[in-house]
Specification:
2 copies of one chain form a homodimer. Chain A is mainly alpha-helical and 140 residues long. Chain A has a single domain, classed as Winged helix-like DNA-binding domain superfamily/Winged helix DNA-binding domain (Arc Repressor Mutant, subunit A, Orthogonal Bundle), CATH 1.10.10.10. Chain A has 6 helices and 2 strands. The first copy, chain A, has helices at residues 2-17, 27-39, 44-50, 55-67, 89-110, 115-134, and strands at residues 71-75, 83-87. The first copy, chain A, has a two-stranded antiparallel sheet. In chain A, α3 (44-50) crosses α4. The longest helix of chain A has 22 residues, at 89-110. The two termini of chain A are 24 Å apart. The model of chain A has no long low-confidence stretch (mean pLDDT 89). Chains A and B meet through α1, α5 and α6 of A and α1, α5 and α6 of B. The structure holds a DNA duplex (30 and 30 nucleotides).
Chain lengths: 140, 140
DNA sequence: ATACTTCGTTAGCATTGCTAACTAATTCCC
DNA sequence: GGGAATTAGTTAGCAATGCTAACGAAGTAT
């Protein structure tokens, strides 16, 4: 089962990713922006942790987002080492537009499913969310 | 729901990918090898289509696999433009080992779930497999 | 036989992941 | 107070993976 779920997840994401081309951003940039939009302002290290990526990688992603004026970098009051990352209005708008596209795409393909199947998927999403949360802290 | 499933899939894969480091292969190489092992020998274009990737990309991935003697390239009898790609014994062994690791990792984290939750996930995997298969041919 | 199509490769670009090494700022400890 | 250790972020450089454009070789069609 684990393997089949893994495989299904891979192929699902490959499909959905194509919709993101419209945003003009790469997947990592889009995902980081999403965390900033929905999670609120945070530091670079925190964002890197949230995205399961190393700080240098996130540093580069944020630089690209800042260049496009989608994210704002301000200095942290109280600790000059830290930076405060915040999605700009433009970033929020772009993200919400892309999100609508993705959801519409997926939802369109789920339309053919029965009500039971939809609720089965919803339940699976909940189970996965909980499982992921619970095993998030431990181990490498 | 679509968005939550999408997000869960992303985070699940991020976790699982870490186990694949042990194989020494990148995710695309591993995935391509998997298709060859489970789907049998095929041409490059077919493999690229199966992996939702353009031919030049797959050409490079196969070249890397061939360099490591995990895949064999033989000429097609009857059409000299085509090549026949086949996983070597070494490739099969490596893939099966990695597969065991991934399954053990995921299964380990699913162990805490109840029987109902497990069957819900299994059902979701089936639904996704069917949905993906049905919408595979159409559109970009 | 010439033109078109198909298959795979090469070249070159952008993105994204990493580690190593660096700077700057803060904290710890004597 | 002052030097050492820690922490936050960046820079440099590598590898893998995605793309398009352009090409050669082989097969098909007119």
């Amino acid at each position: 089962m684990a393997d089949r779920l893994h495989s299904a997840a891979i192929h699902l994401l490959r499909r959905v990713r194509r919709q993101d081309v419209a945003s003009g951003l790469g997947p990592a940039q889009l995902s980081a922006l999403s965390v900033l939009v929905f999670g609120g302002p945070m530091g670079l290290g925190q964002l890197a942790t949230a995205e399961q990526v190393r700080p240098p990688t996130m540093s580069r992603i944020v630089a690209a987002l800042a260049r496009q004026k989608l994210v704002e970098r301000t200095s942290d009051a109280g600790d000059a080492r830290r930076i405060r990352l915040r999605a700009t209005a433009r970033g929020q708008k772009l993200l919400h537009q892309g999100r609508r596209l993705r959801i519409a795409y997926l939802a369109g393909h789920f339309e053919k499913l029965s009500a039971e199947e939809l609720s089965a998927l919803r339940k699976a999403a909940e189970i996965l969310e909980n499982t992921l949360k619970n095993w998030s802290e431990r181990e490498t």
